[in-house]
Amino acid sequence: MLLECRNINFRYPGNEALLFQELSLVIDTPGFHALFGPSGVGKSSLAKIISGQLTAEQGAVRYHNDGRVLYGYNLERLPGWSSVGRHLERVTPAHHRSLKEALIEAFGLAEVMDRHFSRLSLGQQNRINLLRYLVQDFNALIMDESLANVDEKTREQILLTIKEMFPDALFLYISHNVVEVAAFCRQILVLRGLHKMPRVVTVQGQDRMKGREIDRQGLQQTMLEIMNAA
Ligand SMILES: Nc1ncnc2c1ncn2[C@@H]1O[C@H](COP(=O)(O)OP(=O)(O)OP(=O)(O)O)[C@@H](O)[C@H]1O
Question: Per the database entry, which stretches of residues form a coiled coil (predicted)?
């Protein structure tokens, strides 16, 4: 077991209805895992419970050896008092300086390092946000729509790079892009509406890696299974 949520009950303050009732899931392996499901079903809320930003009324979240779980999402904004390059320097531990440089190159961000966050495009802002989590020490990173507004080809390059550079980390990738989650993720955890049982259905993904072609028929099959589960 790498990550386990057991019998989670959760409701937002002031709400009578539970958002999660006895929700359980287990992730056994590192790599890319998707959290997929319709808008409003609770993906971000569950991500915040897993990362400790929200507390469940009941139940437990356990991460193997109490590893560090980070949560990044696409609407985060950096303050404007310095360039994005300076911001990244501040959050990067000394032992990850070369990692930071490699990620800046791979994410196509070298030419924006002197600019201020608010002057970047949404896709550039989201890549900077993601990068600032990747340079920290972590065991698991939740990427909540972290590549929104980034073009498809760059997203593909970024996902393949992350998978190659962080083979031992666990990634929980939240996205509405069914083709992408089917192609790149090892498992897709489909979160279903409150009245559906089981609440989470796991579908095996194609887990695409750098230099390995995707099996088109397998991809179609995975997409079908995801849509049937949702
Ligand atoms: N701070 C809050 N207070 C009260 N209710 C909230 C709060 N944040 C979210 N909700 C409600 O909880 C439910 C789940 O929201 P959540 O953002 O987790 O869904 P999601 O699956 O991530 O949606 P999306 O795909 O649209 O981002 C929604 O009905 C939402 O209105």
Answer: none
